[in-house]
Amino acid sequence: MNDLTLLVMAAGMGSRYGGLKQLDPVGPNNETIIDYSVFDAVRSGFNKVVFIIREEFRTDFESQITNKYTDIIEVDFAIQDLSNIPLEYTCPDEREKPWGTGHAILSAAEIINEPFAVINGDDFYGQESFQLISKFYNNENNTDFSMVAFQLENTLSDFGGVSRGICSSSKDYIIDISETHDIKSVEGKITSSSDLHLNGSEPVSMNMWGFTPKLFSYLKDGFSKFLMHHSHEISSEYLIPSEINNLIESGKEKVRILKSNSSWFGVTYKEDKPFVESQILDLINSREYPSRLF
Fold first, then answer.
1. Considering its fold, how many domains does the chain have in total?
2. Which member of 44, 200, 231, 257 lies 3.0 to 4.6 Å from 134 by CB, making a disulfide possible if both were Cys?
């Protein structure tokens, strides 16, 4: 097996959820969603996990999450800091929101030198999804980027609208990712803030990506260009789907779409938590996961 790292984005504030949801237990023995992702990564051949966090959360992460991984997988941290931007720019004093997923991944540039998967810390992706990326990068001929896709109808919340990257593809490669907001199912009809006609079968990005380290040079350039226009703003974000779209459109990179049949669920709103807990209990009862992970 080749070296393979899991990069977990966990620096968000969880504004809609009302707290630091990445530390909220959902399993029968106080497991977090992150614990399930790490468990799936380990049994899929990953040998390192890097957490993107804010410095003020590090003590809580170590005590509540990463200390239990000792002797199981190598652990490291990348700190996403609002002030970590090129010298020619300054962060607005009133800005509290992180600069976005592109900036988050860029914060790990100095500690990752091998192929890596990127996931959200508050999403449950399922074992098959990790196996797809592991298999892809353990084939020495694969140097393309990749993305695990899920069906749109399986990624919605009963408690409010969500944002999803709707994917167009051809011959197993992504052509375009359209970031679509306020998607929800109302009386069996899927609506959104855009004019797209959605039926629920569309493949969507849930921010589960596979990359090689060459991504970091693209992100460095892309983030600088983003700041030229948005450095004075307090809420705009440099998002990884936008940068990937740019790379696809320019022909600089190809992104293989890897379709997963795994169950996906996430905690966007507090009301989602009981559903997530029940889904995990079902997976434990079907013996896909042990009752205690670590």
1. 1
2. 44
